[in-house]
Design a protein that fits this description.
The protein is of the alpha/beta class. Helix content is about 25%, strand content about 25%. It has a single domain, classed as Rossmann fold, CATH 3.40.50. The strands form two sheets. Strands 2-4-5-6 form a four-stranded mixed β-sheet, with helices on one face. Strands 1-3 form a two-stranded parallel ribbon. Helix 2 packs across helix 3. The radius of gyration is 24 Å and the shape is elongated.
């Protein structure tokens, strides 16, 4: 009987050892399913500047890289609905560090509102960090899963900071049924009553 019980436990142990703690979704990284953040600016600039790497950074082996993943978040979440000024989005930190028995991901970004004359009118910063260790850090595609988890947390923190600190620059525009923001309405045409001849 003990021998039979051991045989019954073997498939369960094998399944437990092969199970990923955080399965990686098959869909590409993206946030278009969320309602975008409409900013009262004429344009949004997303900087291509990538932060410097550090020892143990393995982010370059992923596609998209951590820096590009943060830029994808910005492109999907931010939309310009104003007529002047600009919003400048920058990736401040994008690290995926592989240790001996650990894996950590640190992401941070910055958004500045700049007037038409070039002066800074407001800004927000957001950052998150997630890590796994031991067997979880050695799972297949653990790096990609960790990047997605960290990016999701950054997305939440970024929206919170924008809504809290840049409220005056958020436009009160109702989204379309598909989640997109309608284009700003043109200024009304003024009517002038012509004198009768």
């Amino acid at each position: 009987m003990p021998h039979r019980r051991s045989l019954l436990l073997l498939p369960m142990l094998a399944a437990a050892c092969g199970r990923d703690p955080a399965p990686v979704p098959a869909t590409p990284i993206g946030y278009r399913y969320l309602i975008p953040l409409p900013l009262n600016v004429g344009e949004i600039q997303i900087s291509d500047e990538t932060p410097a790497t550090t020892i143990g950074d393995v982010g370059a082996r992923l596609s998209p890289t951590p820096a590009e993943a943060v830029r994808i978040m910005a492109r999907d979440r931010l939309v310009a609905v104003g007529t002047e000024g600009k919003a400048v989005f920058t990736v401040a930190t994008s690290q995926l560090i592989q240790g001996r028995e650990s894996l950590s991901c640190v992401l941070a970004c910055r958004l500045e509102i700049v007037s038409p004359l070039g002066s800074r009118m407001g800004y927000v910063e957001a950052g998150t960090r997630r890590a796994v260790s031991g067997p979880d850090a050695e799972r297949r595609r653990a790096d990609e899963a960790l990047l997605r988890q960290t990016l999701d947390a950054l997305n939440v923190e970024f929206e919170f900071q924008v809504r809290r600190s840049l409220r005056e620059f958020l436009a009160a525009v109702a989204p379309n049924p598909d989640g997109t923001i309608p284009a700003p309405s043109p200024a009304p045409v003024e009517r002038e009553t012509l004198p009768r001849e």
